[in-house]
Hints:
The structure holds two protein chains of two kinds.
Chain A: H1 2-7, E1 18-27, E2 30-40, E3 45-49, H2 56-63, E4 71-76, E5 79-81, H3 86-91, E6 94-97, H4 109-113, E7 121-122, E8 125-126, H5 128-141, H6 157-170, E9 175-179, H7 187-202, E10 206-210, H8 214-220, E11 223-228, E12 231-237, H9 243-251, E13 269-277, E14 284-289, E15 293-298, H10 304-312, E16 319-324, E17 327-328, H11 334-340, E18 342-345, H12 349-353, H13 360-364, E19 373-374, E20 377-378, H14 380-393, H15 410-422, E21 428-432, H16 440-455, E22 459-463, H17 467-473, E23 476-481, E24 484-490, H18 496-503
Helix pairs in contact in A: 5-6, 14-15
Chain B: H1 10-14, H2 29-52, H3 54-57, H4 60-85, H5 93-109, H6 114-138, H7 143-162, E1 167-168, H8 176-179, E2 181-182, E3 185-186, H9 187-205, H10 207-217, H11 219-224, H12 229-255, E4 257-258, H13 266-278, H14 288-308, H15 312-332
Antiparallel strand pairs in B: 1-4, 2-3
Amino acid sequence: MDQELAARPSPQSGLPMLSARGISKHFDGVFAVRSADLTLERGEIHALLGENGAGKSTLVKILTGVYAPDGGAVELDGAPVEFRNVIEAQRAGVVALYQELSIVPNLSVAENIMMGENTPARAGFVNWTKLFSVAGGHLEVLNQRIPLRRLAQDLSPVQQTMVSVARALAVNARVLILDEPTASLTNLEIVDLFRTLRHLRAEGVAIVYVSHRLEEVFELCDRATIMRNGQVVATEAVADLTIDSVISKMVGRRSDEIFPPRSAHEDEVVVQVEGLTGKKVRDVSLTVRRGEILGVGGLGGSGRSELLRLISGAQRAQSGVIRLAGKDVTPSSITRALDAGIAMVPEERRSQGVILDQPIRENVILANLLSVSSSGLVSKARVRDLANRGMTDLQIHARGTGQKVGELSGGNQQKVVLAKFLARKPTFLLLDEPTRGIDVGTKSEIYLLIQQLAQEGASVLVVSSELPELLGLCHRIVLLHEGRLAGEVAAETATEEQLLTYCYGRTA
Amino acid sequence: MTTNGPSSTTRVGSAEVLAAALPDRKIGVGRILRLSGTGIGLILLIAIFGALRPTVFLTVGNFVNILEQISILAIIAAVQTVVMVVGDFDLSVGSTASLGGALTAVLLMAGWSIPLAVAVALIVGALVGAVNGVLVSYLKLSAFIATLATMTSVTGLAFIVTDGANIFGFTKDFLPLGQGRFLGVPVPVYVAAAVSLLIWALLRFTTIGRRWRAVGGNAEVARLSGIRVDWVRFVAFVIAGLGSALAGIILVSRLASATAQAGDSQMMLAVAAVFLGMTMSSYGGANIGGTLVGVAILGVLTNGLNIVGVNTYVQQLLTGFIIVAAVGLSRLGQDRR
């Protein structure tokens, strides 16, 4: 490693600190990042922006050795690098700080800063004197007065972030990537963090700043790279951008050919949610009509998913009432909700939707055990019928109902989840990110299916972080901001800009 | 370096499907070897001992002998299978067997009728299981800690019940349960077969069986599908307690005596048998057929080594090796990610 360092051009050579060209990565046949270019100059703070799922995190993970790219090349200081893991990236000076993951709560501040290969030790024995003095030095550089012996878990969020930054200094980070570093910080603490980051910039560190908070980006960053659908759509100086121009670049113009034409819904209100409050969700009231598809938008952490969990009985509400056709059905459990006709397709398909190790038919019957059995005995014929019907109705591509769900593509796995819940014939269907990570063809099939269900009289609630999906599929869209309803629009006339404005809690 | 994405094709393009074809399932020799490895191991063991001592080992009498020796372990391993299907495990099965047996013996000595003494012991076993179930399902303790604690307390209870003494001399009418034969086959073998068959049927044909498998497969998916996960796990522990007590009662009848720790050694063997059996399932789950093969391996090993004349200390050493070898080999063929 030392020889490599010597072989590299000197820092003043004018080469960028890091240059990634043509980076691609796909999962399950779907591109997460495609031909992305990113150049980081030394001593700049570079914003990485994009909607949820635009590919920011994947790109960051490729730069830090978490994922191996399928294509493309990365150069650090002009020398090609291929990191096989996080440690190799760290040795080369490329470090990412994630929320909360970055500290070990039950170790001291100094130990956290001097973690891993950095711990001064001889023959396995820690040199505590040196550990404390070096760790203290790094905190001093950051102008932080944090007791070195305090446990990391007893620190405030900003102090924890500072400890992570100090650790990055300890490993001589030349490229520092911060993913939503201000999510849990107060305004004063943000000022403190920004001062530190500017200090590091002055020292020549290249900083990548991933954030949804655009105001911060304009205050702090020098340049911004904007991603959409896995591709880089622009890299520009922040001075040349406005919040509106960033939003329109993040959104782009997109085809909505894959959506079926909107059908009419009836006027009769079937679902009434009144004053629903949970941990994050605050006093949310909404109605859904018979045959209506209502979209719910909002940024990650806005309470979208919690809203669905509260309605579906997966999480107990603090207060609030849910009525179905005028009847109070506020569920105390998922079992009750299903019995009342409320079904939820959960957000995380692989960990919440399907049992990967088990066959399609075993998965499909999970929510339907009573209908495939009599007095506790499962009827093989009824299981077969139910599974076959699901396979046909949803056009699940598989060798048979005995194939393990883990062997199917993401889209077919999602159809298995849908088959499981649709067999309950819900009057109110909740869908959390129904097409995440699914190829476009299957997406289109799922949209059509959702619309058919609505036409047959079901009320549907769709949570999605893909704004075009909300606009293309739904009749009406409500937006959540920090747990509260921030706005409501008719999907036919709304624009993505309008939705994002509500999502960011700005009034139109 | 501004690269504007194409306006109308971006969305479709980014979600381009690379591989529409279903992944081919590899049915290679490795996979078959892995799945049947434990079964082959059993046959190999029989072949080796048969070759070493054909006149003693390879006799009908000796096989009946082996069946009798493993029947109590088979019952405990069968109920342990249920708990492990659900994704937990129960360390208290051995001490619950001890308590069940000891309680029966003490009650018989006190002049209770056989059905009443057996019934009380079974109920106490089920109660131990219920305590485990409450601790694990409702109080969310880890199964390891909860059942370790009940194991310890139940052993204490067994000592209190027996007052630390070896209890013998109870009514002869109780002995046929453990020592009797029907059509030349020992009664415990019938009981073990009945329990295994019952558990197999529960797992295969009933809704509770499907719920167990679902919870073991992914508890969160099961919960979001409307399955009452806590209740389902609770029932599994109750069955484990009940089955363990039954095994302990038969053990006391077979030995015609009871001590506070008579059944304790069964716990580790039962867990080992279930693990051996898990190697025979295509998805690596606990299953009753595999468990019985595991039980048979342990039985044949003990019996064969006895016949060959290997002392019990070396036997224990070898048993450990065999378990590691079987489970280790089954890992070899698995994909690494």
